[in-house]
From TrEMBL:
One of its GO terms (cellular component) is extracellular region. Keywords: Cell shape, Cell wall biogenesis/degradation, Glycosyltransferase, Hydrolase, Peptidoglycan synthesis, Transferase. It comes from Jiella avicenniae. It holds the Pfam family YkuD. One of its GO terms (molecular function) is peptidoglycan L,D-transpeptidase activity. This is L,D-transpeptidase. Gene3D superfamilies: L,D-transpeptidase catalytic domain-like. The active site is at H158 (proton donor/acceptor), C174 (nucleophile). GO terms for biological process: cell wall organization; peptidoglycan-protein cross-linking; regulation of cell shape.
Length: 204
């Protein structure tokens, strides 16, 4: 890339207030003995790649805000900033909104399909005992379990190996993130962190 083009790109980033995207953050990595595959960034819209942006909010720093209409998750930062991640959200009637807190965090969790999911897809019965952690586990590298009034809502913010689902309505209600991004998010928040899922502007 020519020097002039690089300078123009950096000026554009400075004017927008966004931090430049570091592609190396999405390469293949080894995490707790498990391999996280590289993400083909040339096949994902730049807006869904993790970046810090200007973001005015009435919620305090440390709050997780999910905007399902635009497929974004924001982690509110001090001084009018936020870290923005691309997400996949619930399809059709599986979308939800409201407030919760992170009640539990888990690295490379086992996945057990809920009874209603097994009822919709009987072939999932083979996983009633749980699917162990690994590259094909639907919960990915991290899971943040959302609680409300001290009870598990059964909704999660979790990783996914299905990078192509980011920016789309593909899940059964949970908030999916790239595995690299959910590892980053989990390292920044703790149990008790508030979560706000905004209502959708329309059914997507």
């Amino acid at each position: 890339m020519k020097l002039q083009a690089v300078l123009m790109m950096l000026v554009g980033v400075w004017q927008s207030g966004c931090t430049p995207v570091d592609a190396s953050r999405y390469g293949q990595v080894l995490d707790a003995g498990y391999t996280v595959s590289a993400v083909p960034l040339n096949q994902i819209s730049r807006e869904y790649v993790r970046q810090e942006i200007p973001y005015q909010s009435s919620y305090p720093p440390g709050t997780i805000i999910v905007d399902p209409s635009n497929y974004f998750l924001y982690l509110v930062q001090p001084r009018g900033r936020a870290i923005r991640y691309g997400v996949s959200v619930g399809k059709g009637a599986f979308g939800w909104s409201g407030r919760a807190v992170v009640g539990r965090e888990a690295a490379w969790p086992k996945w057990t399909p809920p009874a209603e999911m097994v009822e919709r897809s009987p072939d999932l019965r083979r996983y009633r005992g749980g699917l162990k952690a690994g590259a094909v586990n639907p919960l990915g590298a991290r899971a943040l379990y959302l609680f409300k009034n001290g009870r598990d809502t059964l909704y999660r913010i979790h990783g996914t190996p299905e990078w192509w689902s980011i920016g789309r309505s593909e899940s059964s209600g949970c908030i999916r993130m790239l595995n690299h991004d959910v590892i980053d998010l989990a390292a920044r928040v703790s149990v008790g962190a508030p979560v706000v899922v905004l209502p959708r502007k329309s059914i997507l």
